[in-house]
Design brief:
With 215 residues, the protein is an alpha/beta fold. It contains 6 helices and 9 strands; from the N terminus they run H-E-H-E-H-E-H-E-H-E-H-E-E-E-E. It has one domain: P-loop containing nucleotide triphosphate hydrolases (Rossmann fold). Helices cover 29% and strands 25% of the residues. Strands 3-2-4-5-1-6-7-8-9 form a 9-stranded mixed β-sheet, with helices on both faces. The chain is globular, with a radius of gyration of 16 Å.
């Protein structure tokens, strides 16, 4: 499947049925998707695939609070995609989004944003607040929001702290993992407005830099 082909003007296709069934760039869709993933499981590559696809349909902003290597920036690059690399100030992020009026916003690593100097709570508390603020902003401005968060343990409802914040705030929550034995990724939905579809096993093409479903 062509991962950059718009869906007849209604949305976009990433080539992954489990994800394409949840996401549309229609105005007012009010979609906020949280992607929970252990370090090294491929969340950045998945977000890059989403960015290239959504950029073909509407203005897409990509934010990273930490410096991206040149090869990673290249993965995100595409028509309609603007990359803001190494901005760890959340207020700057929100200001850019308000002014740009994008169709989609992709945040690679929400946990990397630093609280202001006068913040009285923990860093985890600040990430929870930022998570909720971004979802609220997405609903107010009618853009689709994707946020990745590192989760080094099972991010199910019994979890606490930042993981729970994503499940509470986002309309849909997905978990991406990687199995060393099979060399396959697994994407499963743990929260969805439309009910949770079955999980999907994925393979990653390092040449094309895209995921595809295992047939």
């Amino acid at each position: 499947m062509d991962t950059t082909t718009p869906d007849n003007g209604d949305g976009f296709k990433t080539g992954l049925d489990i994800l394409d069934g949840l996401v549309s760039l229609k105005p007012g869709s009010q979609a906020a998707i949280g992607i929970l993933s252990p370090s090294g499981a491929g969340a950045t590559s998945l977000l890059a695939q989403i960015a290239r696809a959504s950029g073909m349909v509407g203005k897409t902003l990509v934010f990273s609070p930490m410096p991206m290597p040149a090869e990673v920036i290249e993965r995100f690059a595409g028509m309609g995609v603007t990359i803001y690399n190494d901005i760890d100030d959340a207020e700057t992020l929100k200001e850019i989004v308000r002014e740009a009026k994008p169709a989609a916003v992709i945040i690679d690593g929400l946990y990397g944003y630093l609280p202001p100097k006068n913040w009285q709570g923990t860093r985890g508390d600040y990430v929870i607040l930022l998570d909720r603020d971004m979802v609220k902003l997405a609903f107010q401005q009618n853009f689709v929001l994707f946020m990745s968060k590192q989760a080094n343990r099972d991010p199910l409802p019994q979890g606490v702290g930042e993981v729970v914040a994503v499940e509470d705030s986002c309309t849909d929550v997905m978990v991406l993992t990687f199995d060393d034995d099979s060399r396959q990724h697994r994407l499963r939905v743990v929260k969805s407005r439309d009910g949770c579809p079955p999980s999907q096993n994925l393979v990653f093409d390092r040449v094309m830099q895209t995921f595809s479903a295992v047939v």
